[in-house]
Write a structure and sequence with these properties.
- The chain is of the alpha+beta class.
- It is about 45% helix and about 10% strand.
- It is built from 13 helices and five strands.
- It has a five-stranded antiparallel sheet with strand order 2-1-5-4-3.
- A hairpin with a 5-residue loop joins strand 1 and strand 2.
- The radius of gyration is 25 Å and the shape is elongated.
- The termini are far apart.
Amino acid sequence: MASHRSPQRAELAEFLRAMRARLRPEDVGLPGTDRRRTPGLRRQEVAQLAAVSIDWYIRLEQGRVGTPGAAVLDAVAQALRLSPSERTHLHLVARDETPVSRHLSAPVGDSLRVLLAGMPLIPAYVVDFRFDVLAHNAAATALFGADFGTAGETTGNTARVLFLAPRMRESQLDWVRVARETVGNLRANLARHPDDPRLREVITELRDHSAEFAAWWEDHTVQRRAHGRKRVVDPVVGELAVCYDTLATRDDSDQCLIAVTPADPAAEDGFRRLMSGPGLHAIGAA
């Protein structure tokens, strides 16, 4: 009886052949002196580069290896010089799951900084998966305080200021909920970046200096916060209802832009008073 491959297996075969065909031997450090009937690398060359057997690679292209391991797929991705998006696609069609992300440290891009500066009434800032503040706009300074984002201080990391700055408890009227969300986010981030020393440093410090963080860390809550609503209080404009939205960048830097917007007309009026006032007021970071 003729065997019928699933659409996923057919896509895997076609994808691998297409990726192989676009490369020349010299692109991957192999001699390219022989004349070839068809363009691209041969299967045995991909197998050689990925350190797998030629028989296994042929069966992979034919969709006959079951569910391949993530590590060996990464070796194939490296052999075929796949981009991060192509690597993710390979894992999806071969394993039906996304791969563990590879973090690439990168400065905040110029276009992202222009975007921050172009939102004069919307407090916004960029953080990495450690919750370190990488960039912020003038509206964020007006809302969170003049030292927001200062390196080396608690305000340089939103998780640290949330748990270790006493003024935060006074300004965050929904402190417990927001703080527990932050713990869940840090645990999720640690699963994706288990060997990152800076992330472990932040977590260790918080466990050592915050009883609440230590207790909530032990309940193993995992959460990926994307958006929400909370109440904050400012000494000048009073209570504000705000929304927060997390917008992820589409690269391996694992940076997010967090924007804080007024949740009602009263908060919108409060924002305008804060942004136009002569002083800078600290009401805490999301």
